[in-house]
TrEMBL record:
Keywords: Signal. PROSITE patterns: PROKAR_LIPOPROTEIN (PS51257). It comes from the Bacteria. Residues 1-23 form the signal peptide. This is Lipoprotein.
Length: 131
């Protein structure tokens, strides 16, 4: 009887793990989800206006939606400083654009693509990434 309970428990655990992993998808839409977390890969760069300049074609940006529902955090690879608490508004059905975007400073995100040209305090972050 104990062995039957152990086997049944193992199957339930296996079912839970498979269901959880298979429910994660690259098609998750950052606009329509209460919780969003996704990794975008591609070219990223950072320049602090001084001695630090980082650039790579094989970088990544991990994007998370924070509790406010309109703010997002961007965690860069390759020792590039993170961007946190950036506020967005919805443009179209599946696209978010940073509030206060201009020709020289913007962040655009959808379920497939991340584009960043962000300038603040003489520091510049860029990203041209896909999922």
């Amino acid at each position: 009887m104990k062995n039957l309970i152990k086997i049944l428990g193992a199957f339930v655990l296996l079912f839970f793990v498979v269901t959880t992993v298979s429910s994660c998808s690259n098609d998750d839409d950052p606009v329509n989800n209460d919780f969003f977390a996704g990794t975008y890969k591609g070219s990223i760069s950072y320049n602090d206006g001084g001695s630090t300049s980082i650039s790579t074609n094989n970088g990544s940006v991990f994007v998370t939606k924070i509790a406010s529902g309109t703010k997002y955090n961007f965690a860069f690879s390759d020792s590039i400083p993170d961007l946190n608490g950036v506020e967005f508004e919805q443009k179209g059905d599946h696209t978010l654009v940073m509030i206060g975007s201009s020709a020289t400073s913007y962040i655009r995100i959808d379920n497939n693509e991340l584009k960043i040209l962000f300038i603040k305090d003489g520091k510049t972050w860029t990203a041209n990434c896909t999922r």
